[in-house]
Amino acid sequence: MSIHASSLASTVVNMPIMRRRVFTLAWPVIGENFLQTMLGIVDTVMVARLGAEALAGVGAALQVMFFVIAVLSAVSVGTAVLVAQAVGGRNYARAGSLARQSLVWSVAISIPLALVGLFAAEPLMRVFGMEPAVNQIGADYLRVVMGTVVVLTLMLLSSSVLRGAGDSRTPMLVTLLANVVNVVLTYGLVFGELGMPELGAVGSAWGTFYSRVVGFLLLFLVMWRGRNGVTIRGRLGWWPDFSAARQMLRIGVPAALEQLLGSLSFLGLTIIVGVLGTEALAAHRIAINAMSLSFLPGIGFALAATTLVGQSIGAHAPHEGAVAGNIATRWGLVWMSVLGVLFFLQAEALIRFFTPEEDVIRIGAIALRTVAIAQPFWAISFIQAGALRGTGDTRYPLYVNTIGSWTAVLLAWLFSRLFPGDLGIIWIAFLLTAPVTAFLHWRRFRGVVARLSAKQA
To answer: Left, alpha or beta for 230 (phi > 0: left; psi -120 to 50: alpha)?
Structure first.
């Protein structure tokens, strides 16, 4: 799948350089997301040593935080796209102004979120219907992570600014350092080691907070010094600008809704699977974990496409964006297809890594093989949607992905009634919808580039 050659006729793109730009942007994002995944795994392992109550309480609090992060992504996505377009147009003053405004508005957005966490943590935990002791652990954890959410917001926005400027390596390296700090602090604060107070499960929240403080300060220093012409240095531009906020939210809100509704669809799928029994639910959870790892290349190349397409739009060279989007799609297609082959051939071994129970392994292997077959379609869908966001079109991916994911959930519900007890059949619902969403994203990006190229002619 490639953009028609007529859209590239006006300018010859140096393909080796463009391939290098795509890969240089993508691999640090893949590494950063992998580090974030490992961060959650390490924290989970440490909290699990405190017992089932601590693990359940922290897990429920993290479910709330997933929705909070989806809200925060509204400004994050809008910032990355607008900064990329400004950099592409060599309007570095505007890029710097947008960077400053993103930090200002991240603080403004964090204030109501912090108040919700401080005063509504316990009612939010009661929604999950857990035991009182578990509710208390979850509320204590949520109160800390929500009360200090400003640091998370600032770190997310700082990383987005740097990616929009074409620097994805710095956020990865900072995340790596923050992870090291988090492991040390969380271990010390959870168990009272290394001269630190023993705080139990809530120590994990404080360890994460302090590691994010370190991460944000490093990112702030990089932005102050400047990267690829973008700097936040100076006294001007720090007063809230509602016009800038509207621009960021116009692009970012659809992307945030997309994440939020996507998360809800997987929650709905989990509820459907829950009636199949404990073994099926355990296999389902393992399959989702494996799937989230397989998405890392797609996410990385999608964000690379967003940045490079955004820069090409700012430079009034949509043909370069077409090339960047296609290169990113081919790279992601190869990587995710290789993972798909690995998942298909080694399904039982991968499930066995998580559990020794034979029933779970048998059921999970069927689901994992379904995930494997869908990998190429998901790769195209992810990356072409990322390329679309670079043009500023975040509504279309919202519509397509939301309808696609919820159609899959409805099909899964139907299959669960027609073929009760079969987890593999339920997961086939995603295999049926993935090719459709992939085609729709490809066709839309192709059309947008053709229209923009015609305007430039």
So the answer is: beta
Tens of pLDDT along 183-201? 999 999 999 999 999 998 8
Contact 416, 428 (CB under 8 A): no
φ and ψ of 227, to 5 deg: -145, 125
pTM reported for the whole predicted model: 0.78
Q: Which residues of 331-367 are buried (b: 16+ CB within 10 A; e: fewer)?
A: bbbebbeebbeebbeebeebbbebbebeebbebbbbb
CA dihedral of residues 379, 380, 382, 384 (deg, nearest 10): 150
The C-alpha atoms of residue 428 and residue 374 are separated, in whole angstroms, by 9
Q: Cβ(60)–Cβ(138) under 8 Å?
A: yes
Q: How far apart are CA 249 and CA 239, in angstroms?
A: 17
Point out which residues pair with 227 in neighbouring strands: 230
Q: Supply the DSSP string of 239-260, one letter for each residue.
A: S--HHHHHHHHHHHHHHHHHHH
Q: How many CB atoms lie within 10 A of CB 6?
A: 12
Tokens 């994440």 belong to which residue?
A: 259
246-289 pLDDT, tens digit per residue, is 888 888 888 888 888 887 887 788 778 777 776 777 777 677 77
What secondary structure does DSSP assign to 108-153, as a single string? HHHHHHHHHHHHHHHHHHHTTT--HHHHHHHHHHHHHHHHTHHHHH
| H-state helical runs in 202-295 | 202-225, 242-274, 278-294
